[in-house]
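Q: Could you fold this chain for me?
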Amino acid sequence: MVEITYQMVLSTLQTAGILVGIIYYIFNMRNQQRTRNLTLRAQEQTLRTRHATIYHQIMYPALSTAGMKNILLLQANPVSSFEEYQKLTRSNNEFYVAWLCMCNLYEMTGIYLRQGVADVEFFAMHQPHWNLRFWRQAKPIIYKLRERLGPSHYRNMEYLFDSLEKYLEEHPELKP
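A: Sure. Below is the predicted structure, expressed as structure tokens.
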């Protein structure tokens, strides 16, 4: 028969204590990992909500009644050259105001995008066909205006549309 000694009991208790400590450590680490994952998901959701709110605030002027009138006016008066643009802006002040409103809206959106405050994904999901059509029409005009006004004229607008085109290439399911 095995004789139980004080040393054996002490050794067994130490081993059991170490095992309990290891199990506690493992459970604690798993719990911390779950908490970290939940926190990360919550932060990601908060960021997406922030981007959506900012995008809505940026686009509100275009979604308002006055913004819709500007969009309709621009759609009704497409320009294909700088000369047409000049003629139209000189003869139709409402067109010029609508043009400036849209360009400045895109310029601000480009600034927010460049600074990481806004996300191009929201812009890509909201009327990309109209936005790109406007950009393709405005691009040669803006390039021509840069000759007089300097290279920074609507550069953030260009950044926005370059980012949009790149995003749409990476996500062809959103392409117009």
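A (continued): The mean pLDDT is 90.
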